[in-house]
Amino acid sequence: MNDFNDRMRRILLEERAKLTGNLLLEHQQFDEMIHQHEIGDSIDEVSTTIDKNLLERLGANIFMSVQRIDVALARMENGTYGVCVKCGKMIDKARLEVLPEASMCIDCQKSTTHHR
């Protein structure tokens, strides 16, 4: 593995650890909120529902980010990291510097996003 990939691996692993920690924190906050709701008489149920939905969405977003990182790490292992999954061309290193989990080159990403 080259220096660039080693650096990207470190960045991805650090981000994964941070996100995983955030996901655990969100889960703990969710559990605390549910516990407070169960024992608290004066909690506004609408506010609690909004908080619950927000925490669930945040957790889902974090989970999806961790999955993208895991895919990038797996691509490093099988030697396809930095290769666009759509066109097979190399993803520009500047793009990977900004978005290390990118699986498509900027052109393919734009065309995919444009068609949605």
From TrEMBL:
It comes from Entomospira nematocerorum. One of its GO terms (molecular function) is zinc ion binding. This is TraR/DksA family transcriptional regulator. The keyword Zinc-finger applies. Residues 79-111 form the Zinc finger DksA/TraR C4-type domain. A zinc finger (dksA C4-type) spans 84-108. Pfam families: zf-dskA_traR (PF01258). SUPFAM superfamilies: DnaK suppressor protein DksA, alpha-hairpin domain, Glucocorticoid receptor-like (DNA-binding domain). Keywords: Metal-binding, Zinc, Zinc-finger. InterPro entries: DnaK_N, Znf_DskA_TraR.
